[in-house]
Amino acid sequence: MLGVLLLLVTACGGGGDSGSGSGGDKDKGKDSSQADTKVSQAVVTIAPKDGADAVKTSGALKVTAAKGKLTEVKVEDTKGNPVEGKITGGGASWTPAAHLAASTKYKVHAVAKDSDGREAAEESAFTTLTPKNTFVGIFTPEDGSKVGVGMPFSVRFTRGITHPEDIEKAIKIKTEPAVDVQGHWFGNDRLDFRPEKYWKSGTKVTVTLNLDGVEGRPGVYGEQAKTVKFTIGRSQVSTVDVKTKKMTVKRDGKVIKTIPVTTGKAGYETWNGQMVISERLRVTRMNGETVGYGGEYDIKDVPDAMRLSNSGTFIHGNYWGGDAFGNYNASHGCIGLRDQRGGGDRGAPAAWFFDRSIVGDVVVVKNSNDRIIDPDNGLNGWNMSWEKWTA
Q1: Is 244 in the same domain as 343?
Q2: Is the pLDDT of residue 239 over 60?
Q3: Which CATH number belongs to the domain containing residue 78 in this structure?
Q4: Is the pLDDT of residue 37 over 80?
Q5: Is the pLDDT of residue 304 over 60?
Q6: Domain of 150?
Q7: Where is the composition biased (Basic and acidic residues) (predicted)?
Q8: Residue positions annotated with a catalytic role
């Protein structure tokens, strides 16, 4: 019985071959086992290391491959938003195309192949720093607005910027139809964008402010990620001739009205140059003390006023000017149009112009005895040549 049991066990475990045959199948099985267990020679390295915290938003993330080439790198935050980048050096490394957001956890998955096509993969997760000091960009025009052909996209930063190139990379502007749009810095806290010439009517502008995580100055980071869209409306460019004391209003290149005006009197001349309407006020107070003119005037109910400069230049309704309109210049530098007190008569010249104007429309002043307005005094960068703007 013991002999029978031994025979049965041998028969069950032997695989039907005692090993006395040719051995072809046995050798083949051995080669297959060796191929399956051979490891890829490629080595993938991810910086920063897995679990790293307080990682810098720029310059810290890099993926490299040794003894092989990178074939895939995927980086995304916990919401699944991808980080764009590209493999360079023939597969040797990968770096992100832009900075990372602050206070954000990222996951990295990278794959490389060795010369025999065998894959090696690595994964890592890390969290970027939480900044102690931050800034934002206060911008105009507003999202969803329709503006005139002279409207730049202007951003004023709450902290002075010492790394302007990084800020410029973080702001993307796309237009339909396409047009070249360039930025220009006024000081270290204001960046304006415009095309070479006035916008074409109907242009759609999309601005991406990817400032979250940008180090604008040492230790000070942006905390803003926003998309702003605005549309260019009909073209309206009005020209004020100080000598003739008339304003010609052109809509889409055609004259639609000529209006008598009064501008700055001797010693208070109105600026020359191209000025953009930046604010519209149905009624406002104008006090000479706010612009360095002492107590020369204080009018509490100026109607139909539109700002042309930061320094206090307006084109506005005037109900106290008598017969000055079209006859002589009597203002302290503003452009006055006849109006009714309270602006109740919407057919009066100032009311008519106010009701047909939008932020971004252009008012050009010529033949004044004063100089051309500074390009950063208001949204008036059009007074700078394209060569200087892009220098």
Answers
A1: yes
A2: yes
A3: 2.60.40.3780
A4: no
A5: yes
A6: 133-232
A7: 24-33
A8: 316, 334
**Residue that terminates a domain, selected from 190, 208, 232:** 232
Q: How far is CA 89 from CA 92, 94, 112, 120, in A?
A: 5, 9, 13, 18
d(CA 118, CA 38): 9
Cβ count within 10 A of residue 122: 17
382 SS3 class: helix
Band of residue 374 on the pLDDT scale cut at 50, 70, 90:
very high
Looking at the fold, whether 191 and 250 belong to one and the same domain comes out as: no
- Amino acid letter for position 363: V
Nearest to 129 by CA among 35, 6, 215: 215
The reply to whether 193 and 279 lie within a common domain is no
Q: What are phi and psi of 117, to 5 degrees?
A: 85, 10
Q: What is the pTM of this model?
A: 0.85
Closest alpha carbon to 375 in 233, 194, 132: 194
pLDDT band at 299 (very low <50, low <70, confident <90, very high): confident
Distance CA 182, CA 195 (A): 6
Give the DSSP letter string of 4-23.
HHHHHHHHHHSTT--S-S--
The number of beta carbons lying within 10 Å of the beta carbon of residue 106 is 21
The Cα 47–Cα 67 span in angstroms is 18
Q: Are residues 157 and 263 in the same domain?
A: no
- Asked if 184 contacts 389 with a C-beta cutoff of 8 angstroms, the reply is yes
Is 25 among the domain residues? no
Residue 365 burial by Cβ neighbours in a 10 Å radius (0-12, 13-18, 19+): buried
Torsions phi, psi for 35 (to 5 deg): -65, -35
The DSSP bridge pattern shows strands 225-232 and 146-147 to be parallel
Measured between alpha carbons, how far is 82 from 347 in angstroms, rounded to an integer? 56
